[in-house]
Amino acid sequence: MSASSSTQQTLWIRQPLACSDPAASGGIVVMGNKIIEQVAAGQQPTQQVDTVFDASQHVLLPGLVNTHHHFYQTLTRAYTAALNKPLFPWLTTLYDVWAGLDDEQLRVASELAMVELLMSGCTTIADHHYVFSGALQHAIDSQVEAARLVGVRAALTRGSMSVGRDEGGLPPQSVVQDEQTILDDSARLIKQYHQPGNGAMVTVALAPCSPFSVSQALMRASAQLAQAQQVRLHTHLAETEAETAYCERLFGMRPLDYLDDCGWLGKQTWLAHGIHFNDSEIRRLGTAGTGVAHCPSSNMVLGSGLCRTIELEAAGAPVGLAVDGSASNDHSNLAQEMRQALLLGRLRYSPDQVTHEAVIRWATQGSARCLGRTDIGGLKPGQQADLALFGLDGLRFSGAENPLAALLLCGADHADHVMVAGQWRVRSGQPEGIDLAALRSRHEAAARRLWGHIRH
Length: 456
Ligand SMILES: [Zn+2]
What we know:
Blueprint (H helix, E strand, L loop, with lengths): L2 H4 L3 E5 L3 E2 L7 E5 L2 E6 L11 E4 L3 E5 L1 E3 L20 H12 L4 H17 L2 E8 L9 H12 L2 E8 L18 H15 L8 E7 L7 H14 L3 E5 L3 H11 L3 H7 L7 E5 L5 H10 L2 E4 L1 H6 L7 H7 L3 E3 L12 H15 L7 H15 L16 E5 L11 H9 L5 E4 L2 E5 L2 E2 L4 H20 L1
Parallel strand pairs: 1-5, 2-6, 7-8, 8-9, 9-10, 11-12, 12-13, 13-14
Antiparallel strand pairs: 1-3, 3-4, 6-15, 15-16, 16-17, 17-18
């Protein structure tokens, strides 16, 4: 321990009502940005603590980790022209709206989505931003600023689209970029913002959008750049049957074979959705250590299917949880997403396979593994002090005997207190330093401006 850290204040989150980690039933001790001790049930910390937070009315979880989102889509929630459509027609309808995005709209959309996530108990947010129109060139830079303002840990991904409608892709030509521009900007962002190692507040990964909007050359070049720069890779894969048919028609292979062919099948990669894998593909993902971000609400809204979470985890693949973009969910609430994962999972698996403990594991440790991190997603000594405290005061929890299970079964939708890197970012349900009414009105105005561009 360094001399400076030994002078930092210690805080005991004392005797929570319940905790997802049985070894921390008596709470945890935080010093600086880290957890330094777990306290067993009924015990005291081994050393004197400076301050105490009485957690006897709260359920303690590690800060939740969201593994896939598109913040800008908060501007097109419940958008009439895109309602009641499966993925491809949903996308082609919305691409034309999204083509009008500018930096200011993305900035406020990112801020709002981050605050929504934070209030739901999420401390690490991942975003997949792939729309770079003429008026929106500094998307990731704006998102870094927003993450610093809100105080969340951010895994930002530099998305890309290089195959427009003229070349047989789905997106309009105005939102695709040439490949050298994409690669140059990716390298710039890594250099400027990516923090390697434990405790990182901002990481950058490379994220070509999907097989139907990016060339094979860009997929391969992105993998090479990621390897050279030691950053992670992310994309959408195996979301729908239509995507499988598209890959077979265009590349003569299934989506996972295509991914493998592009040099992506490894532990540096996590995939959004990962629904339509067969048994041998699941074994390959497990052996490779490729992660899957399970997005239950989005998969249900678009009728895409059910991710094979239990088989993927058993095969060794990291399985995380994600709210996905707000045009297909249409919220950014990871606590609610845990309930959705539990309910959806039980349509395929037996109740003792998809337990509340399993889903909490996906939303914390599993999600952290998807992002390649061991310093978050848990409450062990040495891990980052990222945590969420959920109260059970609401009517919906009254009569609940098991507080941990109640979070999912009764449907917790917000955390009372949230800490990121040892700093309280939500207190008594209110995010620190954020004017919610002003944010709401700036965001609504930005959304209306975006819809307006398509109507003129
Ligand atoms: Zn997505």
